[in-house]
Write a structure and sequence with these properties.
Blueprint (H helix, E strand, L loop, with lengths): L2 E5 L4 H12 L3 E6 L2 H13 L4 E6 L5 H15 L4 E4 L7 H6 L1 H22 L8 E5 L12 H21 L5 E7 L19 H13 L4 E4 L3 H10 L2 H4 L5
Parallel strand pairs: 1-2, 1-4, 2-3, 4-5, 5-6, 6-7
């Protein structure tokens, strides 16, 4: 039985991933801001086969409260086999350009809060367990359309790379998940096209990457190739194009 802690459990990708582990008979500890929504998701997961569910309300930007949430999860399950950090927002880039306060708040939500959580979680993990964190392809190269978000995700990806190297000898796997465009409530205003994936597809990719103890997973897989092309564009060309 997998004992799974999901932080940001009300996000579409997190909920879809929780359903994968519920179907496997896993035990799920769900953390998020909206306790009522968390409890509704937990009830649904129980119907779908989860062996056990528990919930905990946390604002990830309240750094001083993160340890209590983790204490509760470990007290509930004894050990955790998989931690999925899945919270995040999609900042309004022009608004962030106009407000230092907003830019720093969004960077905290999408970057610093994740780094704080991963730092606190790492010493708790045992050999064979996995820390999986949702970053983004946006972190592979800063683009004018979303560089506040991208810079936060770049910080997360780089942090996880170092953490993965540090924890490798202890048998703990650190998985960086880099989704491309995903059709969720957070992206409902965007025009959808062929490159867009559904949360269920991403969830299956996450579970598969965890099973294979992958280091980095671009989801869907074709985003690896897309980002190799984008990263290879010379800077003197890149700064003149619109992305």
């Amino acid at each position: 039985m997998h004992r799974v802690l999901i932080i940001g459990a009300t996000s579409a990708i997190a909920e879809a991933t929780a359903r994968v582990y519920a179907a496997r008979g896993g035990a799920l500890f769900l953390v998020g801001r909206d306790l009522e929504r968390l409890n509704a998701i937990a009830a649904d997961l129980a119907v779908r086969g989860a062996a056990k569910t528990a919930t905990y309300a946390l604002d990830v930007n309240a750094y001083e409260q993160q340890q209590a949430a983790l204490d509760s999860a470990w007290a509930e399950f004894g050990e955790i086999d998989l931690v999925l950090i899945a919270h995040g927002t999609l900042p309004d880039q022009p608004a962030c350009e106009a407000s230092v306060e907003l830019a720093l708040r969004e960077f905290s939500t999408n970057g610093l809060s994740t780094i704080a959580l991963a730092t606190a979680i790492a010493p708790r993990l045992k050999a064979g367990s996995t820390l999986a964190v949702i970053s983004s392809v946006a972190g592979d190269r800063g683009r004018a359309s979303n560089y506040l978000y991208g810079s936060a995700k770049a910080a997360v990806s780089t942090f996880l790379s170092g953490l993965r190297q540090r924890l490798n000898a202890s048998g703990v796997n650190v998985l960086t998940i880099k989704p491309g465009f995903v059709d969720t409530p957070m992206t409902q205003s965007f025009k959808k096209g062929a490159l867009w994936a559904k949360p269920d597809e991403i969830a299956r990719g996450i579970a598969g990457a965890v099973d294979k103890r992958r280091a980095v997973a671009y989801l869907p897989w074709f985003w690896w190739g897309i980002m190799q092309v984008i990263k290879s564009i010379p800077e003197f060309v890149f700064r003149r194009i619109k992305l």
